[in-house]
Protein 1
Amino acid sequence: MTGPTFRFAPSPNGELHLGHAFSALLNRDLAKIQDGRLLLRIEDIDLTRCTPEYEASIRADLRWLGIAWEEPVRRQSEHFSEYEQALARLVREELVYPAFMSRGEIRAHIAAQPEGGRNWPRDPDGAPLYPGLDRMLGGRERRRRMEAGQPFAWRLDVGGALARVGRPLSWREYQDDGLTQVGAVDADPEAWGDVILARREIPTSYHLSVVVDDALQGVTHVVRGRDLYHATAIQRLLQELLGLPSLHYRHHRLLLDPDGRKLSKSLRATGLAALRSDGKTPDDVRRLAGL
Ligand code: GLU
């Protein structure tokens, strides 16, 4: 029997900080005690923000921490055609629709609602839900707009998708030790509304690439920050629609700055490069991360 497969999946759009170190070390520790594998995946679908320099610094920081991973590393920007295939399946099955409303049109639509849209539903990250008007467009009108070159994004018809699955979805969440199951968490993908799965400038999305890659790479255990807890609902739904296995999840605590805010890539003080040049050792980093 093969052991579990973990992954650390950073986006090379900035330097790693203490929070990333915590996540990477946790994945490594769990892989080690369970005799599992650790993969590194570079999530660089946003070619305007991700750079080879950041990727090189991520690798250098991880090596400095003493983390080893399997080569070759999967770099998402080299696999757009695989995400397109998954999207094509959802298009064929009419689970996604072309959404033509621009950001400005969405804002105006919401602002025109009672009380200026103040009660308009918001997603778990606080963004207003997509109005979903284009879900109702007829096939002919859709084709006409697409042929006329009107810009659009592919959005998941979340209601239709749930109806297709036909049963409530959940995922297995684990405790801090990564071994003890907390229990089944009910997935509520509708809380996100009709999310974008692909855009014109980026022919995929975080959600779509992650579920395709996790399955393709044989990942069994997803250990990542609490900020992605609710995103799991959409990912579970996509796994179900694409016939991909459901995984084990552990959403770990987030490291906070002295003001109680989540660490960010712009905060230099907790950057691994800064800590290293301050003379801190990998053991200091473990301690600072509370490991
Ligand atoms: N690439 C994502 C990030 O850097 C993490 C994705 C994941 O672990 O599912 O926040």
Protein 2
Amino acid sequence: MKILVIGSGGREHGLCWKLSKSSKVEKLYCAPGNGGTAEVAENVGISSNDIDGLLSFALEEKIDLTIVGPEEPLVLGIVDRFNENGLRIFGANKKAAQLEGSKEFSKEFMGRHDIPTARYESFDKFDDAIEGIKEFSYPLVIKADGLCLGKGVFICDSEEEAIDVLQDILNKKVFGSEGNTVVIEEFLDGIEASLLCFVSGNKIVPMESAKDYKKIFENDEGLNTGGVGCYSPSELFTEEFKKRLEIDVLEKIRLGLKKDGLNFTGILFIGLMIVDGMPKVLEFNVRFGDPETEVLMPRLESDLVELIEKTLDKTIEEKDLVWNKRPCVTVLVTSKGYPGDYEKGYPITGIDKLDKSIILFHNGTKYDGEKLVTNGGRVMSITSLGNNMEDARKNIYNNIDNINFNGMYYRKDIGII
Ligand code: AMP
Ligand code: GLY
């Protein structure tokens, strides 16, 4: 098969790495890819939002299967366009992608189908929102409705702060039209976990759980990022919890998707806050997570191409997913300044010194001629399986300082449970 993966992050390197191990793959392309995907696939210089360019390429090259990494092309309707042109593509269609593309849409979906989530109200007028915040205590959470590259969520400790955020989003339009509406939510105090699922029509088949570290500094301090560390599985996913999740969340999502005609084939990523052992849904994404993919792919023993084909053919079952029992940890090395402004283009050295047991995924790198250089805020994911979490974690931290680039930073507390 000829396969095209769309995107350029660690998630896409994780997917390409796993796909490249499948005997079903004759040729693997990644558009636009990065320095890491270049090692296992052929990078194609088409941006992930250039739907016309990607469609022409897939038609010309007779691509058998396209796998979409990031959310933007899904929200733009890439799946519908490929399907209209008779191409096989894995990802949510435009209608279902609203589950990620609009926080108001996803909260309404949760409300309609009695899916446990934080209490909320949505507003599109500043004056109404100012009245609305009186119904919440502090801290409260304000979210811009649309896609804001993970920067549209604010936890406010005071009314003053909340008013400033509402000013920025609704009046100053700092997120443009993505902030035409805001969702105001009660703050949930708990532990987060990510659950990625294959969605095949009305079937939802969960993968193993993962725990993402969102804050840039140790002890979960500082600004929110796309995720700077991750491990799988989450220790909170006990048998008892999984049963609760099935009844309280997964079954309700299944019924909700069916009732609302949100039939799709792809990934549903459920962002959970676990409060006193009870699951609450923070958000939905309609794609693989990053860095969740970097810890799930090394643990997945089944052939990913087969799983995706079965999902598309509506024959996937839970038993098709076979997992390595060993846990996996990843630590991201980031550019100085991330998640704020940062510089790119610094040479990266020391990859050749890493132990063979380390799996290295590239998030933001590229080749400048022969030289590998930084090309993003998140640069690389240093990943390891282990007999236990501590073992995997130690292996990473014993190796990580072999890697070097100007301003390299990483958290030292990833994987401590
Ligand atoms: P979201 O994009 O909705 O997942 O929000 C990004 C991050 O903000 C989440 O991963 C949480 O860390 C935090 N967050 C979002 N909503 C809430 C909430 N209601 N209570 C507490 N933290 C939240
Ligand atoms: N790691 C969170 C995300 O992919 O959105």
Protein 3
Amino acid sequence: MRKIHLIANWKANPKELSDAKRLALGFKGGLMKARFTDVALAVPHPFLFSVGEVLGKSERCRIAAQDVSPVNEGAHTGSVTASMLKSLGVREVIVGHSERRAQGLTDEGVRIRVEKILKSGLTVVLCVGERERDTHGAYLKTIESQLLTALKNVQKSKSGRLIVAYEPVWAIGEDAQSADTPAGFREVAIYIRKVLSGPFGPQAALTIPVLYGGSVTPENAGTFLSEGHASCLLVGRASLLATSFRSIIEEAERVGVTSTRTR
Ligand code: 13P
């Protein structure tokens, strides 16, 4: 049976905890009848505990973090460590998002965070993606170097706790030119798997989920999952409205049913 994983990245939203709890409740309701889909809500750190309480122990819908500090516990004012996130019930941590990279996060900074996340027993959602898509394929080199630096010291045995998120920067946010196409994503996903086969071997490279993120909407979610063969989706703006995210869940369920029938 095909399992579809959706990650909602709320970014710095919503403004208040009460809105976050209401939104989380709406998501939980949307998953009541889901058979194929599960969801991780990547909420701002201050909301993690309360949103986790709203979601309860559901395996279908759980909390995720949007980033982590590159340090262990100690004298690091303002830092949030991977162990702290784990103790709140977080299972997945997004790392290397382009919005963090734009604020100075380097490939080396991503690598250290990946190390901390894996050491704490959590799953890494590693974001990679180019700023611009050139016609000579130079963008593939950017993706390769982001991947290889971030995963430099990761042991093969840890590959089961890796998710790679392809998020082309030009496709993200309100100012995006457009989303990528399912065919465009598919090509890049094949390339990402080829790069992953270097450090992790061909078998793991095929099983590490490669997801798409960048202007995912209820209208295009189904085609990224079916034609694009995306393992999962990372959803930004469209995850800030319970109704639109519920429609994405419905699309995922439709793809799940179709994939099961055609096997
Ligand atoms: P949008 O879906 O708002 O384009 O955001 C994508 C994203 O950055 C998800 O992490």
Protein 4
Amino acid sequence: MTGGGGFIGSHLVDALISQGRKVRVVDNFTVGHPRNLKQHDRNPNLQVVAADVADPKAMEEAIKDVERVFHLAALADIVPSIQNPEAYFRSNVDGTFVTLQAARAAGVKRFVYVASSSCYGIPDSYPTPEDAEIRPQYPYALTKRLGEQLVLHWAQVYKMPAISLRFFNIYGPRARTSGTYGAVFGVFLAQLLAGKPLTVVGDGTQRRDFTYVSDAVGALLTAASSQIFGRCYNIGSDQPVSINRLTELLEAPEIVYIPKRPGEPDCTWADTQRIKTELGWSAKVPIEDGVHHMLGNIEYWRDAPVWNPDSIAEATRDWFKYLSDE
Ligand code: UDP
């Protein structure tokens, strides 16, 4: 598995290890963190290789004797992808190419790629099906989409048993807290812990298809054991929730409103009919339960950066600069 030291990857490691499987993680620990895997210290079934997915030699070595590859490693924040597209291209596109080639050389039984719902940009229809138009709004979304195209092309040309899952707003314990301004749960939980107001974007009526990480892991395992290949699937809860509702569930004592960001959709909502029909997967965890688990693990965010409207304005300056229409 690539990216096993990251948020979703580490939960997938937990699930595979609890099934008694042998897991080899490749991670360069720029996004991921060793502490996400510390629960498996000294477990002989887990091997961790510190390497970059864009390094062909390292990947050939890491994959040569594995049956299934889960390719989760990626750079994932929006603003840095605008500021430094080269690093994103290298990790997310070159890294996928190199991982695919290594997997092909090894003759793996299964290759599961994690793609992003950001490929839909601002879609025309909700819920959004897989055949909606592809409209990446920033380099992160584009590079994840290019990676997906590689994966599906390898399935087409080389009959690689590969599949792509388009994840919608995955959240859960250990959700990333890198130094950069990122996904909303980490931002809000750190603010809650610090007793600071939650920074709600726009008027908070925008909705997101928040999907609990155990459901995402279930989808990855389902994809890994299916025979279908060359397909992409939406992975979402199919239950979009507004940011205002989220702040209620978090029982936020105080809220402050910050400007809406250009290019961001008012709603993300996965049409999950395809995966229900073809693979028999659907999400199980309602937002209330997911948020409850997050609050139970809130100490994880104790040392996370606490954002405020000024620091967010500063951190997102390039977002507004490049993506605004004016
Ligand atoms: N959001 C917010 N305050 C923040 C960060 C995000 O209200 O400080 C909102 C944002 O407008 C979006 C949702 O939370 O509607 C999810 O944002 P995130 O960046 O996690 O994911 P994405 O916008 O890429 O779906």
